[in-house]
Every structure is written in C-alpha cells, then in structure tokens.
Design a protein that fits this description.
The structure is a homodimer of 346-residue chains. With 346 residues, chain A is of the alpha/beta class. Chain A is built from 13 helices and twelve strands. The termini of chain A are far apart. The interface between A and B is large, with 47 and 47 residues. Chain A binds a DNA duplex (30 and 30 nucleotides) through helix 2 and helix 4.
Chain lengths: 346, 346
Amino acid sequence: MKRITIKDLAQQLGVNPSTISRALKDHPDISPALREQVKKLADTLHYRPNYMAVNLRRRSSRLVGLVIPETIMFFYPYLIKGIEHVLHRHGYSLIMLLSNDALEREAENIQICFDNDVAGLMIAFSRETKNIHHLELMEEAGTPIVMFDKVLEEAPYDSVVLDDFSDAMMAVRYLADTGCRRIAGIFGNLNMRITQLRLNGFTAALKQYGLPVSPDYIFFADDPAQALECAQLAMQAPQPPDGIFAMTDEIIVGALPGLLDSGIKIPDACSIICMSDGILPYFLRPQVTFLRHDGYEVGRMAAEQLCALIRNGEHLKPGYPGKQTVLQTQLVELATTRKRTEAAGR
Amino acid sequence: MKRITIKDLAQQLGVNPSTISRALKDHPDISPALREQVKKLADTLHYRPNYMAVNLRRRSSRLVGLVIPETIMFFYPYLIKGIEHVLHRHGYSLIMLLSNDALEREAENIQICFDNDVAGLMIAFSRETKNIHHLELMEEAGTPIVMFDKVLEEAPYDSVVLDDFSDAMMAVRYLADTGCRRIAGIFGNLNMRITQLRLNGFTAALKQYGLPVSPDYIFFADDPAQALECAQLAMQAPQPPDGIFAMTDEIIVGALPGLLDSGIKIPDACSIICMSDGILPYFLRPQVTFLRHDGYEVGRMAAEQLCALIRNGEHLKPGYPGKQTVLQTQLVELATTRKRTEAAGR
DNA sequence: AAGGATTGTGCAAACGTTTGCGGTTGGTAA
DNA sequence: TTACCAACCGCAAACGTTTGCACAATCCTT
C-alpha cells in the first residue's frame, strides 16, 4: 500500500502541497476553515510526515545519539531508561551505540551519529578516551553534547556526574555516627579516577572526625576475589576495624563473604556501608546500608539538559563553558545494617 | 563549516553529480581512472553521504528498531549488547524504544519505527499485548520483524526464544542425578506463561524419574518475600525436600535466606538449582548451580536473523510462517553447589 | 471610488541522492 | 566510407517537505 503524502492530500483537496504543509503546522496564513479540513483529511487517511524528507530539509533529525561503553553494569540499564523516558516526552528517539571501552569504536559511533543528523549527543567516554578530537565534527555541526558518568573535565560540554568525593565522605560520616571508631576502606584500582576521588573523600572525612587514617585500614582490590582477601586480612589484624566502607558493588560482593568467613558478627561487631550502582545490595545477606548511585536520575537529568540545549541553542555561543550538574546520592538504610551500639559521634 | 556533498565533488572535478554517485559505488560505467580520482577526492575532503537524502530515495534507513518492555532486568542489558554487536557488524544502528509493558506505548514506538523507515524491527512484547494489530503498518511497509523473549505464538514472524519447558526438566534432572529424591519447586505467578511452561517441565521430569509429584512440594511466590516464606514452609514439613528448584532470580533471592534461616545445610542437606537471567547467582552466598538464560545469545541470534531477512526478503513471500529458533540453556555449576552424597540416579 | 493594507493561496526552488535514458566519443568491422 | 558497438558520461526527474516570494481577492481607509 502506497504511503500517503502531502501531495496526495493536496490533490484530494485541490490545493497546493505547500498549503497542506502550512495548514498542518497551523501557519496563520491559512484560513481556519481550510486548516480544519486539511487536518481532518490527514487524520482519516492516516497521513504521517516523511521524516527523511523533513530531515533532509532541516538538516536535523528527531534522533538523539547515546554513546556508552557498556550496557551490562547495573548503572547503565537505569540510565538508558531515564534517558528514554525524558526523550520520548520531548518527541525524540534514542539511537544506541556501544563503544566497548574502545576509542576507535567510540569515534566510529560518533561518526554514525553525525551521519544520522542527530539533534544531540549524549556520551559517557570510553576508558581509552583522553581528549575530544573525535568530537570535532559534532561541534562543527553545532550539535549539542552532554556528557555523563565518565566525563572529561576539560571538555566544554554540559555534564551530569555524581560527587564521588562527598559521597565517600557521607559514607564515612554514617559509620562514624553509628559509633565506629576504626574505619577501614576497600577500594578499587587506584588508576581509576573514581577510586582516587572516593579515597580522598574517605580520608578527608576520617580527618574531619578525628579518626585514624592508617594504611593498615586501606585496601585495594581489582575484583571480588581480591576484595575477599582484603576483608579477611582486615579482620585478622590485632585491632580489626569496627566499620568498613566498600567502594563498589564488585567490592562488597567479594568482601561480604570474606567477613562472614571470619566469623565477624554483622552489624554488631562491624558496620558495613557500600556504594552501589543499583539493586545488588538488596540481594545481599546480611543486608548492608549503601549509597545508591541512581542511573535513572543521571539519565533523566542529562537528557533534560540536552533537550534544553537543543531548544535554546546556548551551546552555540562562542566560549560556552558547559553546565556542570552534580547529583546527590541517596542513602539507603536496610533493616539489619545499623550497629546496635547507638551513635556516639558528633 | 558547510558539509561537503556529491555536488561539491562534481564541481571540483568538473563532472556531473551522477557520475560521482556512480563512481563512489563502483558502477562499471565509470572508467577506473575517474573512479580512483573521485574516491581520492572524496577521501581527502572527508565526504560522507547524506543519509537522509539516501533514505528519502530508498524509502529505507540503516536503522533497526528495538522495542522492549524494560531495560533493567538482568536479561535485557545483555540482550541489547548482543543485538548492538551484530547490527554494527552489518552496518545498522539501533534505535531503542521502551514500552514499559504498556500496549499503547508499544504501538506508539512501532509508529516511530515506521516513521523512521527502519530496515527491520525487533520486538519483545509488552505484558498487555495480546495480538498484532499494531504491527500492521510494519507489515504493509514490508519491514521484516523478529520477536524474542516475550513472543506471540500465532504471529508469523521469526522468533528467538528459550525453551522453558526443557530447561525446567534439565534442572530437575540435575537435582535427581545429584541424588535428590524429594524435589520441591518454587514458582512465580501462575498467570505468566513461563511459569506454566516451567512448571510443566518440572512435573514432567519428576514423572520421568519416578519421583513424587506432590502439591506439598510445589510453591508459588509473587516476590522475594513470598519466596522466603515458601522456603521456610517447605523446610518445616515432616519430610523436608532434599532438592529445590527456584524458577527465577527473584525467587532464589528470597528463598535462599529463607533456607539459611531454617538452619538447613546447603548443599549437604539440600541441593539447590535455579534459573537465572544473568549474573545474580554469582553474587549469592552460598553459591547455587543455575541455568543461565543468556540474553546476549538471544540478542545475537535475533539480530542475525533479522539481518538475514533484510538481505533475502524471505518474509515478503506470501504465507511466510516465520522461523522459530529455540536456544539451549547453559548449566553453570558453581563450586559449592553439588550435594556431597554422590549421584545415585540413572 | 480609488488607493493601500490585509488575507489567503499558489509557484517553484531547494535539501542531497539515485537512476533511466540518451548522447558523445573512439574504435572496429563490413 | 559507413555502420555499429562498446565505453563513458551528462541530463533531468524523482523521493516528500519546506519556504521565500509573487499574486489574487477581499477589506478598510480617506
């Protein structure tokens, strides 16, 4: 069945295609009577504008490019959902490209976005990405860009990130307020930016509370298995910690069995808090309190900002610095996590 | 900076745009010499074809629509990854639409795919979807469709699904082979198709092994909390089961703590097996053996089939019945899951 | 009643590609 | 020489929309 076009409508009503076009978008030049007539016919014939033709004229589509390194970490599925939700409300659709943490693939994906005349680009950079040369074509095209999660500080784009430094501080504060005095931290690979930020927040908070900052209480683990060892090691110390901060889902997954194996009573002998990208803590036993990094919220905000840029074109001003948004983390306190010995701190 | 077009190339070389177009796609009418010249110039000027113009002519884009109910269940992130991987290899990009398990939204999304002239459609139906009326426009457009995961049996499209019936059987067989004789099953809501299929597989296997099929050993739970109760209930029976089959991630998450609370030794006193959509079992303690539903594989296969259809147009033949693909499940046996009392069955 | 402003519509070009057809070369065979 | 054929390339229309401009008809001025 032939798709019905503006020309068809024009022919049926005996008017010019341009008139149909204008009528459909409530152009004041067209008389209200004709306008109604056109719309009614368009409706009954199920007319749908041909996006390709529109895009060709407009040099811009109703698509938004999303370039991320992964889909499978807990964070991203929520992120996608948040983005899709907002975009759909604004009449945009999402084209999803995966970079697999490879710069080359990322550049390729950006090229694809360019080729599809996306109205905007959302990107979380790959591990290999150190600069924004491969974004040049987007800039030249005047396409607004927003970064999130994995961002490049120096890039002059809008960004939505989480505050790893203060989040780690918040975690320590929670433990301290619960009465913990010897707080250990298990961190990921120190090469990662988030590790450094969280570590800094961790030690800063300890200092603020006048608690000891000892290398004996700071561990690094690249995976759950190593985290398990760290936990055991920590508990074998002459003065085992009475509070533990686990930096990520991966860490807590490994550390928790390690603690259980050590026969430590949780949370009576040792409080635990971790940072999580999703729902994993809900599934752990014993349950632990955690700071939830809400991917949905990040996606929502980032998409909202992108839509704003598309609308107002602020990013086109020369020297536009990009607007940073830092998201607050939410503390989720599950039933069995708080130490019985009541808060002594503060 | 102005985007460079075929016309620009034509002007620079003093030839007609049509010649450029042909040269670029190795049309035999164009002399090899000119062909090379054109390509070199295109390269140095970074010429990129305008997709919108191409699509307008071709009435088809290099986009594939993906319509799914959710992103956050374990299954989908892997699925997306698998799809994206294959599609990228074939030169297609993914446009992602979420239906949130709502029929209306699903129809809307299909409309969007239509409007974007997608080359193909991949869909997992919403819970509300009972028929395929809203896919009519796709059919009329001759767009190939493949369903996966949540499919409609009667729809004449290609499909990729998992075999819930035999998977459940496989699970029971595993338990029986491990020496279990009183096998209980905890299932989800009986209204769901997969519940019925898995339940049928479960009982069929029990019969096959000559094991008792008793309502006392069959439980239904809508969420983890109910699963926990079921587990406790099962273990309080005069003859508690020595093997338990948990139908889903949700079930096992609830059931496992319930079993631990009952003081049952796992796996010595009771073996456990579950079906999982992802990586959750890796995070559970004690670890359980599970049948892994590999979303990546489903996505990969589905995308591969779609690409095949796009290429060969088989779906256009009147009466094309659709090609069903049933994926085998993979048994993942983690360290601590097998009952010590060695296999007696078979 | 004539002039000007206003309102409503049509014309045609343009966006960048693709493609059927026709036309121009040069060469070969009759 | 003429006729024909192959090899190369240009012309122009088409895909469906949008939009600046021209134009006709109607209205309100004075």
